[in-house]
Amino acid sequence: MLRNLNGLTGHRILAADGEIGAVKEFYFDDREWKVRYLVAGTGGWLSGRQVLISPAALKAPDWNSRTFPVALTREQVRTSPDIDTRRTVERRHELRLHRHYAWPLYWGEGFYTGTLAGGAPLPEEALEDGEERPPSEEEAALHGTAAVTGYRLHAADGPIGSVEDFIADDRGWGIRYLVADSGLLLPGRKVLISPHWLEKVDWDSSEVFLDLTREAVRRSPGFDPSVPVSEDYESALYDHYGRPKLEAVLPPPRRRVNK
């Protein structure tokens, strides 16, 4: 099912032996637009520290009670690498995190599962701070939903509004749509924009550029955040833009973005 990510903030995260904290936001990568971590605020028991939880640790969510059970213990979380989520989360930080929990890697050619499946350990030198280096063009960067909310949206022929929310599927955690407040076209109107329809994202200036015209966006099916996205709505959306609906379940094309 498709979920509004900003609507999931505040959901409690429950370990096998007690509560870890509550969802603050989500981190997604800028290559495949998939959620890679839930950011959990731990409150008083870890002095307010924020920790990253991979979707790989999630059990079946309880949507009625607004809880995310996870296959972790509070001790595992307490002893996990202390990553400053207020700064850029780099690949070396992720390596430490995945090694600590024996989580699968979502990048590269291998599938590391540590002691859970007897996978080869990560090379120790990859975990050392060592010399700082910028991410390569093949390396995805992570972005927080809280930070990207509010980015200015531009159609091919002018501004249309801003990013208000994100729609992701609750199984593979791929971001299927950005929810756009198209107030510069029609006040109070919301529309959905697929990552496939992005021309580029300028992360430095907080701007998203689309390969759609303002008129096409203005005439697109409106979106009601209180109503779940249905297959009929998606079909109407893709028909409007003349795009294949298969795009909805495929990763977006790997376009260069400004970082």
What is the topology?
Blueprint: E1 2-4, E2 12-15, E3 18-29, E4 35-41, E5 50-53, E6 67-69, H1 74-78, H2 91-101, H3 114-117, E7 142-144, H4 145-148, E8 152-155, E9 158-169, E10 175-181, E11 190-193, E12 198-202, E13 207-210, H5 214-218, H6 231-241
Parallel strand pairs: 2-6, 8-13
Antiparallel strand pairs: 1-9, 2-3, 3-4, 3-7, 4-5, 8-9, 9-10, 10-11, 12-13
Give an account of the 3D structure.
By secondary structure, this protein is of the alpha+beta class. The protein folds into 2 domains: 142 residues, Roll (SH3 type barrels); 101 residues, Roll (SH3 type barrels). Helices cover 15% and strands 28% of the residues. It contains 6 helices and 13 strands. Strand 3 and strand 4 form a beta hairpin. The longest helix is centred in the middle third of the chain and has 11 residues. About 10% of the residues have low confidence.
In short:
This protein has 259 residues and is α+β, with helices and mostly antiparallel strands. The protein is 15% helix and 28% strand. The protein has helices at 74-78, 91-101, 114-117, 145-148, 214-218, 231-241; strands at 2-4, 12-15, 18-29, 35-41, 50-53, 67-69, 142-144, 152-155, 158-169, 175-181, 190-193, 198-202, 207-210.
Fraction in beta strands: 25-35%
Order of helices and strands: EEEEEEHHHEHEEEEEEHH
Total number of distinct structural domains: 2
Assign the structural class, choosing from mainly alpha, mainly beta, alpha/beta, alpha+beta, or little secondary structure.
alpha+beta
Entry keywords:
6 helices; alpha+beta; SH3 type barrels; 13 strands; 259 residues; 6-stranded mixed sheet
